[in-house]
Inverse folding.
């Protein structure tokens, strides 16, 4: 019995060491959650929560978006919450979680008076690219999405 227990412990130690050896500093596991959303989630509250805030008059917390984009380019895990405000002032929230290979996008327009009340929608996308509108504006967009519902877009900084 002792021999079986010792063998089991030895296998457990070896497996644990192998798992720790395979994990690198370049590929940390994301375990943090997004900050709680303070209602009614106006632009000031969203900015204080660390969201990238997209308004008609400009973008707040641009540095957070730039860091996220650098991490995606380097294939480092990261996450970001982007809150865009409609002309009427309703928040539309996108959570983007990058695992090093794909982006999970969560779309929530339930706080917008004209939004759907269906709850959050998620999609998995392969990456981020750019798109040029007919008016000549350039936007970041998610690419290679499975569902392509409620696509993410953001003005290029």
């Amino acid at each position: 019995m002792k021999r079986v227990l010792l063998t089991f412990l030895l296998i457990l130690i070896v497996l644990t060491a192998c798992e720790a050896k395979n994990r690198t500093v370049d590929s940390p596991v994301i375990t943090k959650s997004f900050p709680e959303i303070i209602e009614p989630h106006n632009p000031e509250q969203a900015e204080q929560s660390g969201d990238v805030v997209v308004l008609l008059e400009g973008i707040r917390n641009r540095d957070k978006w730039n860091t996220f984009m650098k991490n995606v380019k380097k294939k480092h895990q990261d996450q970001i919450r982007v809150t865009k405000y409609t002309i009427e002032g309703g928040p539309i929230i996108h959570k983007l979680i990058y695992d090093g290979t794909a982006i999970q996008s969560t779309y929530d327009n339930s706080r917008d008076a004209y939004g759907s009340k269906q709850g959050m929608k998620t999609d998995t996308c392969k990456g981020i690219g750019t798109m040029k509108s007919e008016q000549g504006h350039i936007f970041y967009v998610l690419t290679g999405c499975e569902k392509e519902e409620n696509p993410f877009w953001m003005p290029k900084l």
In short: Confidence is low (pLDDT under 50) at residues 1-28.
